[in-house]
Amino acid sequence: MGRTKKVGSTGRFGTRYGASVRKRIRKIESGLKTKHACPSCNTVKVRRVSIGIWECSFCSFRFTGGSWAPETPGGKIADRTAKRLAGQTET
Fold first, then answer.
1. How many helices (H) and strands (E) does the chain have?
2. Is the separation of the CB atoms in 53 and 64 below 8 Å?
3. What is the CB neighbour count within 10 angstroms for residue 12?
């Protein structure tokens, strides 16, 4: 095996599937394997348990998120909208 400096984890595909598809998969997989910040305790200890389920190994906080990342762009928009609407109803 060996040389995967450029292609990273997608070296297993060889020349199949096209370069842009392999680049997209490499980006997703690299983000999947890294540790993320916990929304509860803010430590960088969150890992994926299974698809859409994430757990902090520091405070054992389990939560749902995206399949490949704990927070999706759509989820960020939904959180902002909910906070904005909650602030409007109180006044």
1. 2, 3
2. yes
3. 11
pLDDT > 90? residue 9: no
| Coil/strand/helix, residue 49 | strand
The H or E element that residue 48 is part of is strand 46-50
DSSP single-letter state for residue 12: G
Q: What pLDDT is recorded for position 63? A: 95
* CATH placement of domain 35-91: 2.20.25.30
For the cut 70, the answer to whether the pLDDT of residue 15 exceeds it is yes
Q: What is the pLDDT of residues 24-39, one digit of tens each?
A: 999 888 888 889 999 9
d(CA 22, CA 5): 14
Helix, strand, or coil here: 75? helix
